[in-house]
Request: fold
Amino acid sequence: MNQVFQKINVLYKKSDQLLASGHFGEGLWPVDMESGQMMNWLIRFFSLKRGVEVGAGVGYSTGFLVSGFLVTGGKLVSLEYFLPKVEQLEMHLKALFGTEYGQSVQIVPSSFERWIVQPGAEKYDFVFFDQRKGDYLPHLKMLMPKLKKGAFICADNVLSHRDECQDYLNFVRGDKRFESVRFESEQGMELSRLR
Ligand SMILES: C[S@@+](CC[C@H](N)C(=O)[O-])C[C@H]1O[C@@H](n2cnc3c(N)ncnc32)[C@H](O)[C@@H]1O
Reply:
């Protein structure tokens, strides 16, 4: 396991303590370690350059993504609207990467809905969805004009929240613009590619 993954693993082990502080609502709900590693590999292998993460939480997933974009010279926009989590997310990234993380991630302390309507010509080749599961499909539809051809979309919890993700799964599997497979992690990650 590489050094950053080992450090993320150490942070995972402290997550119960973090939750017990009572500052972060009902849960942290981190991405599976294997899904995080898969996304990191995807970013590096395909040399992806522009990413969006919806639902960064305290940043377990963000650590895997930033570590990929530091290698490719790319940049991630990381969205989280719950401010106590944003503060902890920044502390986690500093612990993982030092102050260097700022080159590879823009943390946006806001909702996807507010961010997506901002003007901007940027196009994205990587998306990670980990927000409310019923929002995956409407958010994907809003993002479509901003996706590059060949963009990857990773959607977490398609096994653990199968019913809530069903509309999204029907869409990415039924629409010919996408190619879509499930990555069999514990919580299940749908990996789709815009043709
Ligand atoms: C499952 S947790 C994220 C876990 C995180 N990805 C990780 O691996 O550590 C989901 C997070 O999404 C945030 N969220 C939900 N809907 C959102 C939205 N529309 N815009 C931004 N953040 C959102 C919640 O505040 C919550 O912290």
Q: What stands out?
A: Residues 29-31, 54-61, 79-82, 85, 111-113, 130-132, 135 surround S-adenosylmethionine (CB under 6 Å). The two ends are 32 Å apart (CA to CA). The chain has eight helices and seven strands.
